[in-house]
Amino acid sequence: MTAFIENQNWRYATKRFDATKKISTDDLNSLKEAIRLSVSSYGLQPYKVIIVENPELRAQIQPAAWGQTQIVDASHLLIFANKTSVGDSEIDQFVENISKTREIPLEALSGYQAFMKDKIVGLPQETQNIWTSKQTYLAMGNLLNAAAELKIDVTPMEGFSPEKVNEILGLDALGLNASLIATVGYRHEEDATQHLKKVRKPEQDLFITL
C-alpha cells in the first residue's frame, strides 16, 4: 500500500506532455488490460474505449477540447465513449459471455438475465445515458492507477464538446457518446505543474465516521 500512496502523490493532471516520448507497446497493453478489468455495474461495461492514433484526427479533436495541447502532444489519446442506451441484445451478449467464460449453462443464468432486463431496459434513454456515462469514470480510475504504477502520466479531461467529438469520430452512428478523454504519455520537463504541491482536503474535512 505504501507504493500505491507514493504513486498517487507522484501523479498529477499533466499540463504539458513531451511529444518526443512514446509509450511502449507492452506498457500500452498493460494499460488496456487495466481498463478491461475495471469494475462496472453488473459487469456490463457499457462503453467502448477508442484509441486515437491518427494525428489528423487528433488535430481535429483539439479545437473541440478547448485547444488543449495535451490532445496532440501526448503519446496516446483515449476516448471513453458510453453506450447511449442498453437493450436486450447487450444483456443477452453479456450473459452468453458469462456462460462461456464460467462454463455455466445459459438456462442457469436466465433469472439474472431477466433481472437485468427488468432493471435496465425499461429506463428512459436519458437515464440510461447518464448511467452508462458514469461507468466510464470507473474505468478511468483504473487507467489512472495503473499508469501511475508504470510512471506514465495521464490527464483525465471533461473539458471538451462531446457533440463535436462525436461528430468527428462518427460515434452517433455507433450508438456511442464521448464521455471522457484521457491523454496518456510522459510529462515535459518544463511542465511547471509537476513541481506544485498536491492540494487535497485534510482528512478531518473529508471523512465522516458514524
TrEMBL record:
Its cofactor is FMN. SUPFAM superfamilies: FMN-dependent nitroreductase-like (SSF55469). It holds the Pfam family Nitroreductase. Residues 10-186 form the Nitroreductase domain. Keywords: Flavoprotein, FMN, NADP, Oxidoreductase. It comes from the Bacteria. GO terms for molecular function: oxidoreductase activity. Belongs to the nitroreductase family. PANTHER family: NAD(P)H NITROREDUCTASE YDGI-RELATED (PTHR43673), NITROREDUCTASE (PTHR43673:SF2). This is NAD(P)H-dependent oxidoreductase.
